[in-house]
Amino acid sequence: MQQEQEEAPQEPKESKLVHYSALAAVILISILIYYCSSNIESFKTWGYAGAFLLPLLANATIFLPAPGWLFVVAMSSSLNIWLLAFVAGIGGGIGEITGYLAGFGGERFLQKKEGKKYAQVKGFMQKYGFFALLALAAAPIGIFDLAGVIAGATRYKLWKFLLASILGNMLKFFIIAYLSVHLPGMIHSLL
Fold this sequence. Notes:
Blueprint: H1 13-36, H2 48-60, H3 68-76, H4 81-95, H5 97-113, H6 115-138, H7 144-153, H8 158-190
Helix pairs in contact: 1-5, 2-3, 2-4, 3-4, 3-8, 4-8, 5-6, 5-7, 6-7, 6-8
């Protein structure tokens, strides 16, 4: 008696190529930014263009974290903090796409390995994703990369991810710029 083995449906080669390409792009971008980090300081003289590029590059790294908020602190004394937060927030939000792509590329692996948990996280993202992403993007601690990976892996809508990421980064960078300009004076007046 011959047993029939049920074969799992094969994923199209094009789909595998997209997944692997997304992961390779994220790794390549992270390595490139890490090796070019010594030149990032020169962007500070670029004004608002630097305010856009520095957070974009800093947030594009996943495996090798770079604190983009430090550049905002450095630029806040010479640029309008409202425009600085606006421009840096857009750059930082766009830079977070690499985390999304890493999750997108690893989605198949996560779905196979963590089937039930994956379904729960996907449900959470569909229900609360925008506000969770907005809050995490606004937080000054570096956990948003993980949120981006989860958003990509659960196929959260890219436009919603970008909007939450940009708005959260704008809020975070405004608070950081405001405090870096006004906090020293506040502390000095208390003394």
